[in-house]
Amino acid sequence: MHQAINIPKHLLERKLPHFPNNHLCVLGKKYGLKYFGEINHQVLKKCYFDDIILFMKVIHQLAFYGVILQGNLHKYSILQSEEDSFYLWKDLVEEQVFNPDLPSHILQKVKEFGILYEKDAIGLPLLSFVRIETDFAFEKVLAANGFVFIPYDQLVENLGKETQPIADMMTGEFVDDQLTIGAEDFIKRPPMPNRLKSIGYNAWSQVLDDLKELSRRLSGDGSERIDEFCRTLNLLKDQIESSGQTDKEAVDTYLKIQLGRTVLDIPPALKDKPLSSVDFPMCPQVPIKINLMGYTKWGELPYELNELLKNITGVGPKTIRKFITRVNELFEECRSLEAEDSGIKLSLGKLQISIPKDNINDALAEIMEGGLLTAPFVDSLYTRGFRSVSDLPRSLDKLATELTNFEVFQLFDSLCQVYSPDLAFNSRLQQIVFLVLGILRNDRVNKTSRAIVILEKKFSMISENRGHSLKDVSNALGITRERVRQIITRFWHKELQKQPNLMESVVDDINRLGGLVPNSALMPEFDALSQFEQFAVGEVFAIFDLLLTDKRGFLTSFTKREYENILKELEIDLRDAERVPMDLALVERIVQDFIVKQGLYPLCQASFLQIVLTDMLLPWQDGYILKKFPKSDKILCVLKEYTQGLAIHKDFDSFFERLNELFPGQFNKNDRYIYSAIASSSKAYLWGWGVYIHRDNTNVTKDDLEEVVAWISSQFQSGVEKLSVYAPYNEFRTIMIEKGIPNEHALYSCLRYFYSEEFSMPKSPYLYPSYVEGHLQNADVLEEYIRSAGKNVAFTELKDEFTNRRGWKEYTLNQAIALSSQTIRTARGEYGLLDWYPLATPENLEPLAQYLESLLSHDVQQINIRLIFIHKQVTCNQLRIGSDIALYSLMEHAFVDRFAFPQYPHVQVKSLDVSLETSNVKQLDDYMRKINNSIFRSELRKEFIEGRAWTDKAIENALRANPDIFILKRGAPTEYVHRDVIGWNKDKQSQLEEWVQTSLERFRNGPVSYGNVLRDLFKPQYFPQLEAGIPWTDDLLKELLKGCSFIEFIGTSKAIFVPVPNNCNIYDDKGFMEFILKNEFQGNANIFQFKERLAELSFSHNGEFPRSGKVDDQELPYLISANDIIINDSRREEVR
After folding, report:
1. Confidence class of residue 551 from pLDDT cuts 50, 70 and 90?
2. Which fold has domain 922-978?
3. What span, in angstroms and rounded, lies between the C-alpha atoms of 609 and 588?
4. Rg of the Cα trace of the chain?
């Protein structure tokens, strides 16, 4: 594990978070840490081997706080330097909880990182928040919470600390034993230098060597601050020592110098030149003092220039820094001059290539002619001003702002293939493979190297399908897991370091190419290797955090899980293909688009395509489908065969048969998933009521809807906030049909697919403006419209606005009225708002409620609201209630918990029995059964009109609607009786019908098929007995038989009956009059004589014609003149 951390100075003395679930808190408790500054390389290394999960979580949390991660951990770092971000600052007056208006998941994550109070957020990089959610406006939200955003220098100034981070202070004042202690070293505590000098410390080296005694000797006030100061110096000393040891061990010191943590090569042009103060105008005293120490030439400088600078007296740290900066500038100038003399040296990462002087002007053209670069690419370089190699920056990494990583790599690698073939990427890859193969095929190494034995053991375990983890291998070899890892890692690091920068440059290039390079394109000889050799090469790459997937795949810097996620994302893109099955051209385009979207190396396309065709797709019909084809896509494939659309319910059986034929046994006919897969897919349009069609079977384009969309937008701009799709469809019906959109359902589907960003369309049939948050309820829209009108609105006006203009259905409007808590009915056909009756509060309506309670009782369970309105007219006027309808609505809103309001105008006793009927029919029925006798209409009027405020119409409707109430006697007044009162039941009805049918036989087949009810049919002695002392009447008889199919009663008084069927074909009034006219008057009669005969037969009062016989209709069997009635000509022949 190669990694380092750079803790900014402002975090050194910051305490770690202290609540239990925080990962830094867990780290601190586990390793005895209290401050950020106590976290170093050794602590992280130990955590890595003890608990890698905790290690990764700690790394992410450190990056969030602004710690700069280096080495293999650089990809987790949010900042590359302290100046990369602004920092949060706030002048805190009192401690407050950190609770800005952030999304819940972001706030939760920030709190998990230990940011509980506003003081915890001080000094956090703003970029850390942005990395969590790039599209969220953190600056606006945090600024609203009082935070400001300041650069790092200002943050350090506010905190009272130096700006230089701890990792950059190796050559600073704290490690120079000759640099004296001065007040400029203390920004926050100026008295400290005098105190240190007073007890005998004159140089920082003395302080560092005596830290244990320092706090005791600096006794007095402020002991806590002194302890913190000493602890900071101690941490600094530890990091300086560990860093210095690492650098000394790793660097070849010939013609090199070390400045800070940087090792510089002394340019050959400077080797024998004098070290002169003329070259250092900003710090001439430093080279002069170095000359006095015996170093007069650049080549004579010692490698440990840091140590040399420590011995210089009388020069401050800022002057030392100026000297170091100037040294770097001189070295860069020399390298440029060298390049101009012998050619140009171009570098990329750690690699450098030299372009000969003679080829500088023609190099780009040469590599283009060799086919290594395309003409368009070279032209793009020309347009950017790079017409020759001399125009390119010496470090091609600087081209990152002009070209993509791919293009930078392609340019450098093409130059390598021409001017330094050994540095070409594929050459370096082959070098690695050949180095590994050379070791594997060396018998001497194989017999002595434990690393090769470990590889062979692991390969045999894999071949035998046994567990082959590091632990399994270590158990098989009888050594520890860590020892196995060390042997493998150290062996291959040692062998590959014989070629400097070889593996590191390969890793850099792979990352530059997006993290993936194809095996087949860059290592064609790999397929010829044995299985063990392929395995061993893959293991070697794994040591350097590279994954060799397989012989058909890639060499990648991604982890195995990351690589698998890439393949999953590719499979998702294939699943979202615009048509299924996919032809080869579509598959290639999807793979190409995926590579561009992921930022991968273009040469990966062939390998990805091979993986897709081999592992992900299978041939189906004329193309390909996914092997892991989702059920929903299979359903849509079958839907596509229905080119005119599928009536999902009507044609489901045939649809399922086809589905089961193509995918046998995979679906259940009763599975609701089949319906939901079609209804929820964006590839299926709702094309009618219950009809769906595959999108590929339609020809509707986005342009076809432009006119409709413009009209919808104009409606929203005019103030309409909710629109039904019925409105635009009706407006453009002709155009829609011409475009192939058959109905409003199809229009809604097309709008949702093409214009989902312009409008909000949560559920058919409604559309909203895109700016509307949430979905307006119909009731809310209705209330807003009435409120904007400022007065009661007639239902006709509401209907015109909402059904005609906005496209609502009428039942939707009625439902909105019913569900609205503010909309009330104020008069017949008018609606208003509850707010318009400010005086009608529950307190002011309480007297009316008490009066209503006094009227309701166990016997009287329902009252008409009109009764309250009439009796309490004065109170209603005082409350500005102008109608009984408005009173009903207001009472219902105020007292719905005390009374039941089933329907205007009825108010009832509140009952727990939800099955209790509340209609007028029920009330009338209960009353007539309760009196247990017959009743006249006048008595009903007195009870219900005078007592319950009914109307005559309400009584009439209730009587007609109740089949259990019979007319006992017609006349003035009419008398009624209830079925239960006379004890009438099915058995008695059957007895009566049986007797009547027997009596009708003599009329059915006789010459005269009619009879008189009173004379021929009314025989009470043969009828079933009635209860309650109620006698039989002819009207009751006709009531009980009026629904029977075997008899008809005719005439205005229904006094004549005819059996059905009968020989005379008499079934109604016209038929009876025709029969009398034919048989008794031979088809022609004086109208007065004819009426006298009808009166004699009791057909009607005074022989008047019934209404059906007076109609001027060609279908009448007779004609009526002034004094005569004659049979129609068309029927005269029948008379003759």
Report:
1. low
2. Arc Repressor Mutant, subunit A (1.10.10)
3. 7
4. 50
pLDDT at 691 over 50: yes
Confidence band for 79, pLDDT divided at 50, 70 and 90: confident
Reference 352, options 257, 250, 265, 262; nearest CA is 265
The token pair that represents 379 in the structure block:
């032209």
Q: What is the 3-state secondary structure (H, E, C) of 223-288?
A: HHHHHHHHHHHHHHHHHHHHHHHHHHHHCCCCCEEEECCEEEECCHHHCCCECCHHHCCCCCHHHH
How far, in Å, CA of 703 to CA of 748, rounded? 15
- How much is the mean pLDDT over the chain? 79
Q: How far is CA 669 from CA 357, 438, 661, 675, in A?
A: 79, 64, 13, 11
Q: Is the pLDDT of residue 47 over 70?
A: yes
Distance of alpha carbon 412 from alpha carbon 353, whole angstroms:
9
In the prediction, which pLDDT does 966 show? 92
pLDDT in tens, 492-542: 888 877 777 778 888 888 887 788 888 765 566 667 778 888 888 888 888
Stated pTM of the model: 0.37
3-state SS, one letter per residue, for 853-898:
HHHCCCCCCEEEHHHHHHHCHHHHHHCCCCCHHHHHHHHHHHHCCC
Kindly state the helix (H) or strand (E) to which residue 4 belongs, with its residue range.
Answer: strand 3-6
The tokens describing 226, both together, are: 């002194």
Confirm if 685 and 746 have CB atoms less than 8 A apart: yes
* pLDDT-derived band at 1136, boundaries 50, 70, 90: very low
- pLDDT of 976: 92
| Token output for 621 | 């019909």
- In the chain, domain spans: 3-162, 174-219+227-335, 349-422, 424-558, 559-629, 792-836, 837-913, 922-978, 1068-1136
Show contacts of 773-776: CB within 8 Å, 24+ apart. 776/721, 776/722
Q: Which two tokens stand for residue 285?
A: 């005293």
Higher per-residue confidence, 32 vs 618: 32
Cβ 631 vs Cβ 667: under 8 Å: yes
- Is residue 574 within 8 A of residue 628, CB to CB? The reply is no
Going through 549-653 in order, the beta strands assigned E by DSSP cover: 554-556, 617-620, 623-626, 646-647
Query: What's the pLDDT at 220?
Result: 53
pLDDT digits (tens, 9 = 90+) for 790-835: 888 888 888 888 887 777 778 788 888 888 888 888 888 888 888 8
**Amino acid type, 907:** V
Q: How many residues comprise the chain?
A: 1136
Report the run of H or E that residue 364 belongs to, with start and end: helix 363-369
Per the DSSP assignment, residues forming a β-bridge with 693 are 685
- Over range 181-198, report the average pLDDT: 52
If you average pLDDT over residues 401-410, what whole number do you get?
A: 76
Sign of CA dihedral 44, 46, 49, 53: negative
DSSP state for residue 908 in the 8-state scheme: E
Closest CA to 373 of 334, 410, 336, 330: 410
User: Per-residue pLDDT for 978 more than 90?
Assistant: yes
Give the C-alpha separation, 690 to 746, whole Å.
Answer: 11
Coarse DSSP helix, strand, coil percentages of the chain, rounded to the nearest 5 percent: 55, 10, 35
Tell me how far apart the 2 most distant CA atoms of the chain are, in Å: 160
Instruction: Report how many helices (DSSP H) and strands (DSSP E) the chain contains, helices first.
Output: 51, 34
- Judge whether 673 and 619 are in contact, CB under 8 Å: no
* Tokens describing residue 990: 């059957």
Q: Which amino acid is at 378?
A: V
DSSP track, 705-762: GHHHHHHHHHHHHTT---EETHHHHHHTHHHHHHTT--SHHHHHHHHHHH-TTTEE-S
Neighbours of 94 (CB within 10 A): 6
Contacts for 476 with CB less than 8 Å, ≥ 6 apart: 457, 461
